[in-house]
Amino acid sequence: MTDIERTEFNVQDTSFPSANDRFGQAGRDVDARAQFEELDAESNLRPKSLDEFIGQPKVRKQLDLVLAGAKGRKVAPDHILLSGPPGLGKTTMAMIIAQEMGTSLRMTSGPALIRAGDLAAMLSNLLEGDILFIDEIHRIARPVEEMLYMAMEDFRIDVIVGKGPGATSIPLEIPPFTLVGATTRSGMLTGPLRDRFGFTAQMEFYEVEDLTKVVTRAAGILGVEISADAAVEIASRSRGTPRIANRLLRRVRDFADVHAGGVIDLGAARAALIVFDVDESGLDRLDRAVLTTLIKGHGGGPVGVNSLALAVGEEPSTIEEVCEPYLVRAGMIARTSRGRVATLSAWQHLGLQAPPGTLGS
Which among 21, 130, 135, 210 is annotated as catalytic? Predict the structure, then answer.
C-alpha cells in the first residue's frame, strides 16, 4: 500500500480520539463495550452539515451559495480554499462539502505529496464530482503543484512514460472534481495556485458565545451533564478555537467522572482546568513560562526568540508557531524589530507591577 493510499479515508472514518480517550485512566477497569460507545460518540463531535456547523456565519452563507449554485447546475463546485489558524474547522468543512454534494471525499496532505506521480495516482482514481481535500496545501512539492495547475484548470494531466530521449507524454483525462485546499499560512501559497481557486474562505477565531454552543453540543453528544456556567467557563479558556474547546471538555469530563459524579458544574470545571494547567485566559504552562522568562528574566524585553526558546527548553519554532500567535492576539506580547516585548497585559496577568513606559500603559 502506498503512502497516498494510506492517507485516503472515508468521510465517516476521519475523526480519531486521543490515546487517553481510547485507553482510559491508568489503574481503572475498562469496559470494552463502553469504550466502543465512547469512540462512536467522539466521531460524532464533528457536525455533518452546514446547518449543524456552529460559528463562521459569513463563510457558511457564502459556501451555501456556492454549493447550492453548483447543485442547481448539476456540476462540480469551483475549487475551494479554506484558510485560517489550526483547529477552526477546515477539515470538518471539507467533510461537510462532500456530504452536502453527496459525493466521496478523498483526503491527503501537502507533505505527503512528494512526487508528481503521487498526485497522478490519486487523481486517476477520482470519480466525477468527487472532492479532493489537501490539508496544509502550501507544503506540497513544486513538481506536484505544477501538475495540479493543469488538473484544476483543464481536468487533465500529462503522464511522462520512459526516460531520456525516448520519454513520451501521455495526456490523461480526469473527471470534473473539486479541490478543497486547507492552509494555515495562505501567504506561503504561490500566486498561480491561489488564483486557481474559485472561492476562498477565511476562517476566523470564535467568540465565547459560539464556543459555548460548541461545548454544550459536544457535551450532549458525549452524554455528559454540564451546567450553563461551566460551559461558558470552558469556552472562555479555549483560545477562540473549537478543537481546544472539545479537548478541554473531554479532560474536564475525566475529572468530573472521578471527582464529581460525572456532572460538570462550575466548580468541577474550574478545578479540572487548574489540574490541567489552563488558567483563566487560556494560557497553559508553556505560555506562562514564556511570559515569566520575558518579564522576570529580561525585564519585559525586547528579547530574541532564540533566547526565549533556550530559557524555556523549547525549539524556536515551537515558540513562534504554538505560543506567540495566541499571546500576540491576546495583547500580551508585541513583536518588534528588536525582539519580543511584554505588554502591560502580560505584567498584569502575572500579578506584577509594570515599570513606567511599558507598552500598552
Answer: 135
- Proportion of the chain above pLDDT 70, given as a percent: 84
Annotation says 135 is catalytic: yes
Which residues participate in the annotated binding site for DNA? 335, 340
Q: Any catalytic annotation for residue 216?
A: no
Report yes or no: 159 and 119 within 8 Å, Cβ to Cβ: no
Structural domains for the chain = 3-202 (3.40.50.300), 208-275 (1.10.8.60), 285-349 (1.10.10.10)
d(CA 203, CA 208) in angstroms, rounded, equals: 16
| CB-CB contact of 94 with 131 (8 Å) | yes
Render pLDDT for 119-174 as a digit per residue (tens, 0 to 9): 888 888 888 888 999 998 888 888 888 888 888 888 887 776 656 666 676 778 88
- 284 is annotated as an active-site residue: no
DSSP string, 124-154: HTPPTT-EEEEETGGGS-HHHHHHHHHHHHH
Residues at the binding site for Mg(2+) are: 91
From 139, 194, 243, 270, the catalytic residue: 243
Catalytic residue among 178, 183, 184, 293: 184
